[in-house]
Amino acid sequence: MKVDAIDHPLAKNQTPRIVLQITLTLIVLATIPLCYPLLGYPLFLLKNSCNNSSDHSPSSHDSREGLIGELQREKRCDIFSGEWVPNPEAPYYTNTTCWAIHENQNCRKYGRPDTEFMKWRWKPDGCDLPIFNPAQFLEIVRGKSLAFVGDSVARNQMQSLICLLSRVEYPVDVSYTPDERFKRWKYTTYNFTLAIYWTPHLVKAKEADSNGPTHTGLFNLYLDEFDEEWTTQIEDFDYIIISADNVTDLPMSYGYRKAFRTAFKAINSLENFKGITFLRTFAPSHFENGLWNEGGNCVRTKPIRSNETALEGIDFELYMTQLEEFKIAEKLGNKRGLKFRLLDTTQATLLRPDGHPSRYGHLPNENVTLYNDCVHWCLPGPIDTWSDFLLEMLKMEVIRSYNDEKLHSKDKKNDD
Ligand SMILES: *[C@@H]1O[C@H](CO)[C@@H](O)[C@H](O)[C@H]1NC(C)=O
Ligand SMILES: *[C@@H]1O[C@H](CO)[C@@H](O)[C@H](O)[C@H]1NC(C)=O
Ligand SMILES: *[C@@H]1O[C@H](CO)[C@@H](O)[C@H](O)[C@H]1NC(C)=O
Ligand SMILES: *[C@@H]1O[C@H](CO)[C@@H](O)[C@H](O)[C@H]1NC(C)=O
Ligand SMILES: *[C@@H]1O[C@H](CO)[C@@H](O)[C@H](O)[C@H]1NC(C)=O
Ligand SMILES: *[C@@H]1O[C@H](CO)[C@@H](O)[C@H](O)[C@H]1NC(C)=O
Ligand SMILES: *[C@@H]1O[C@H](CO)[C@@H](O)[C@H](O)[C@H]1NC(C)=O
């Protein structure tokens, strides 16, 4: 079965509403002064030419026309189905400009000879996905906070985001613990907080024999119990990006389902939480010629086309499980005004078997791992595109909350 045959909550059910909202935006924008700051979002996010602060005059007709024009030209589509196309301008950082690259993902340092894997961008079928704009991102998240909740792939994504933002600003470390698994960063110019909560299984887990002589690394999982390491910490965050890719310990899709149900339940039960929850969907690994513990490897150097593969077997099952649990959580959350969004990177990720460290996550003579890494992503690399998706979704949130606020104030006026 193919991914795009799935009944996609974002792609299908919500498209008409998005179109409607954009139409409303255009009407609304035509009637308000340019650059009107609403909910802390300056409108110039939507248009670069609105960055002259002395130019706030509602009579600046040309600029307003320009703004509406740009929004009209910005075609929307399902950004998550498409193909990878060459991008000679990439990458946008290197291992010398960004210190946030984790050693095990510093593929160039450890001798990966090819460079083409860094030179692609995602092209949705029906529109364009802009390349990540770090200044725009930081403007949107000004005064806000974002937390990654997940395993080492979530950390991989956060490090990619830090590197992409490094062209504008490096964050300062404001972690509340020396534990490397729980980092907190601050972008001081933008008062933006970025954090990661490491939770490999989303639920409570205890190492089976952490004090015993045989350090097996096996975990006892409590699928119904919150992992308080993160559930007690996230209440004040504006955005949460939750994910789970490491399924080695979970009794396949049953455990995966339970883990997500419990994690979403934790979020929906937070009394003061008002943020948006993004589910970053399952990132398939790419072991070929064997499983991870059977000498499997990922040696390709090019993306594959969408007609050459399909999400199958356990990957497909896990992906569908996520979507089902997401929909259940969204329904429950909506009742109390909580927003859930799908950051559906699975299809784009599936097509990038060339982006993993393989054996280049460490020096060849080091015995640090016994298997090839076809799970994490080289930096720079395809995972940078997840930030392109994220920024596009945050822009949609700007438009949505703008419209909500506008309609709200209109309702109020009508009531008077
Ligand atoms: C807005 O800023 C960008 C980059 O700083 C600049 O290229 C552009 O000309 C500016 N536009 C206006 C109208 O000032
Ligand atoms: C901003 O606009 C004003 C008048 O429209 C102009 O005099 C000024 O040079 C502009 N400043 C910048 C930085 O573009
Ligand atoms: C960066 O990558 C180059 C190879 O492109 C390598 O020689 C160098 O050691 C790496 N530097 C760091 C700081 O990782
Ligand atoms: C920074 O943002 C936080 C919310 O994340 C807010 O409470 C605080 O007042 C902001 N500080 C400044 C100096 O704007
Ligand atoms: C997955 O989890 C297991 C146990 O928690 C751990 O040993 C392993 O390194 C993890 N794998 C990845 C790719 O994170
Ligand atoms: C996939 O599509 C491309 C371009 O449309 C075409 O050249 C190629 O032959 C197709 N491959 C398969 C396996 O159908
Ligand atoms: C790696 O392991 C092999 C075989 O176990 C051993 O001969 C070699 O000395 C080890 N290398 C390092 C750098 O530890």
Automatic annotation (TrEMBL):
UniProt-listed Pfam families: PC-Esterase, PMR5N
An annotated GO cellular component: membrane
Membrane-spanning segments: 18-39
InterPro entries for this protein: TBL, TBL_C, TBL_N
Domain Trichome birefringence-like N-terminal: 76-128
Keywords: Membrane, Signal-anchor, Transmembrane, Transmembrane helix
Membrane topology: Single-pass membrane protein
Subcellular location: Membrane
Ranges for domain Trichome birefringence-like C-terminal: 129-244, 245-393
Any one Gene Ontology molecular-function term assigned to this protein's record: O-acetyltransferase activity
PANTHER family hit by this protein: PROTEIN TRICHOME BIREFRINGENCE-LIKE 19, PROTEIN TRICHOME BIREFRINGENCE-LIKE 9-RELATED
Family as reported in the entry's similarity comment: Belongs to the PC-esterase family. TBL subfamily.
Protein name stated in the entry: Trichome birefringence-like N-terminal domain-containing protein
Species of origin: Acer saccharum (Sugar maple)
Taxonomic lineage from the root: Eukaryota, Viridiplantae, Streptophyta, Embryophyta, Tracheophyta
